[in-house]
Amino acid sequence: MSESLSKIFALILAVLLFYIFPVENMLTRQEDVSRVFVLTETTKFVDSVRSLGYITPLMYMQFTRNLSATGISYDIEMEHLHSSINPV
Question: I want to staple 34 with a disulfide (CB 3.0 to 4.6 A). Which of 47, 58, 70, 71 is the partner?
């Protein structure tokens, strides 16, 4: 009886080690890849806006389409700052 319990325990442990942990590791890596992709796309978008000085609807739609390709929904918030220099 105890021998069969140890075999069942070993089988459960083997399933955990061979299937569950690699899948969890793969999902973590996929999350990291998505994070890097979003950072890259955001940097491209911000650099483009800085160089042009404005945002076109096409630029914004391409940016949101690229972000939605990850399968994760994002809340996009933009902030417009305008510096004014008053000479003395």
Answer: 70
For residues 50-62, b (16+ Cβ closer than 10 Å) or e, as one string? eeeeeeeeeeeee
Helix intervals (H) in 1-88: 2-15, 21-52, 57-68
CB contact at 8 A, 45 and 59? yes
What is residue 8's DSSP assignment? H
Residue for token pair 């510096």: 83
Question: Six-digit token pair at 19?
Answer: 């299937």
pTM, two decimal places: 0.66
